[in-house]
C-alpha cells in the first residue's frame, strides 16, 4: 500500500507518493533540508498516484509555498484534495489522529530510517541492473535479489531510491485518470479491465488488466517500475562491437542486396524513425533486415527482433546466431523455459514480450507486422514503441501492409523499401478469379481440384469458416474418388501433423481455414481460395498471404492460384492488383530470372553490402 504526501523543500511544495513516506522523507533530507506531510492513509498505488497528481495541480494553481502560512495552506489543499479524490473512488477520507502527529512520527523515526538509506553507488548499480526494463514490483524485487543487490524485504527502499535519483519511474500498473478511466501502464491498453478480489491489496474489487494478464497480473494496487537504458554507445560498448561480423550462409539475390543496401542507408542516414519493408511472400526479408542489424550492432547498439507468432521467433534464433557469431542473443517467448538474458545485444521476442522492456533498443525489427495478434492491437503497438530508445529506429516488415501503412507511404510520411521478387527469381503466381454466380461454389472447386490433384501436385483449399472446412472436405472426397483429403482449423489438435502430412506428400488435398495462411511451405502446391469474397474473414491481405503459399520452392517455383467467389469484390481485385504490380516492378527492375543474369559466384560468402 502507498501514501500520498506533500514534500516541502527549498524549491517549494510538491506532491508525491511512496510505499514508505518516512523513507522518502529521510532520503530527501539526506540531500537538502525537507519537510514531508502525509495526506492519505495506506491506499492502492493508483489511488495514491491520482491524489498526488491532483494535489500537484491544485498547488500549481495556488503558487509556490515556501514557508509559514503558505505551507499550512498547502497542507490544507493536500488534505482537502485527498479527501475528495478518495471519496470519489469509494474510499473513506484520511483518518489521522492529528496533522502534527504524522510529521512528529516521521522525526522520531529519523535515525532508524537513516540506516535504511542505501549508498548512491548501490542505487546506480541497481538501476543499471534493471536498465531498459519495465517491471512489476514482484519482478523488480526478484531481479534485484537475484543480482545480489538487495534482500527481498529491502527492495522497496532501493526502488524508491532509484526513482528519487531520477533513474527510474514509479507508476501504478493500472492507473486511474482524473475522470475515473483506467489505463494499463504495462501494455498501454485502455481495457478491458476486470474488478476482481485481490490478494495483494485485500479489496474485493481491484482492477486487473485483462489484455496483458498472460504476462502476470497488472493491477491498480501493484506498482510498475520503468527504468530507461543509459549510454549504451559507451567506449565499453564500442570494444564489444569490434567483434561483430556478419556471416550469411548463402548468396543473396539482387533484390535482397538492393533492399539491404537501402535499409542500411536508412538506418545510418535517414531522419525518418520508421521504415516499411514490403516484401513479397518468400522474398527472404529476414536476411535483408540483417543489414540494419549489422550496422546497429557494429556501433555497439542493441537490437530487438519481434514477431507476433511464437513459431516465427523460435525459427529465427538459429539464423540470427549463425549470422552474428559471437554476439549474445536471447529468446523471450511465452512459456519458453530457457534462461532469459536481459543483457543480450540481440533479443528475439514475441510482440507480447516487448512489454518487458522500456526505452532499451536502438533498433527494433518488427516482422510480420500484419499478423495476428499484433495487427490491430493498440496495446502491442505501444509496447513495441515503448521498448525503443528515444533516438531508436524501427523497421516494419510485412508481405501485406495495412491500409494505414499504405496511406502513410503514399503521403510520404513513411519511407518504403520494396522487395518485389522471390528468392528463386520467378514471378509470383497470379490468381485466376473464378466467379460462380448464384453462390454454388463447390462444383467449381471440385472441378479445379479434380483436374489437378494427385501425387506430387498437392492442393491447399482455403475456406473462411471452421465448419466449412469439414463440409468442403467431405464434398471433395465424394467428388474426387481416390484423393487423400484432410481438413484442419485452428482448434484442431492434430493441425501440426496435418501440416506435416501435406508437406510430406502423405495427403493430396488439405482444406483449411486461414490457420495455414502463414508459415507453410509445400513443394509444388496449388492454392484454391473458396469464398474469396467473404470479406469478413478474407481481406486483401489474407488473400495475398494465401496466394503466397504457391510456388515458394526453388524446385517448383511455379504454381497456380484460384480465387473462387460469387462476386469479385474490392478485396479480391486489390489482392490480384498487388500481386500483379509486384511482378511488374520485379520485371522492370530486372530482378526476374531469364531477363537478366543473376548468377553470382558461389565462393561469395559475405554479402555485397556488408
Ligand atoms: Zn495491460
Ligand atoms: Zn489489488
Descriptive overview:
This protein has 18 helices and 23 strands. It has 610 residues and is of the alpha/beta class. The chain has a seven-stranded parallel beta sheet. β15 (361-366), α12 and β16 form a beta-alpha-beta unit. α14 (442-452) crosses α15. The longest helix is centred in the N-terminal third of the chain and has 21 residues, at 68-88. It starts with a strand and ends in a 22-residue tail after the last helix. Residues 184, 186-187, 189, 209, 211-212, 218 line the site of one zinc ion. One zinc ion (ZN) binds at residues 44, 198, 200-201, 203, 206, 219, 221.
Number of strands: 23
Provide the helix percentage: 25-40%
Tally of helical runs: 18
Give the overall shape: elongated
Instruction: Please name the CATH topology of the largest domain.
Output: Rossmann fold
Count of all domains = 4
The secondary structure category is alpha/beta
Ligands in the model, by name, code or SMILES, are: zinc ion
Instruction: Using the coordinates above, name the CATH class of the largest domain.
Output: Alpha Beta
- Quickly give the CATH architecture of the largest domain: 3-Layer(aba) Sandwich
Computed CA radius of gyration, to the nearest angstrom? 29 Å
Whole-number average pLDDT? 84
Strand numbers in spatial order across the main sheet:
13-14-12-15-16-11-17
Q: Let me know the largest β-sheet.
A: 7 strands, parallel
Q: Termini separation (Å)?
A: 54 Å
Low-confidence stretches: 232-240, 596-610
CATH homology group of the largest domain: P-loop containing nucleotide triphosphate hydrolases
What fraction strand?
Answer: 15-25%
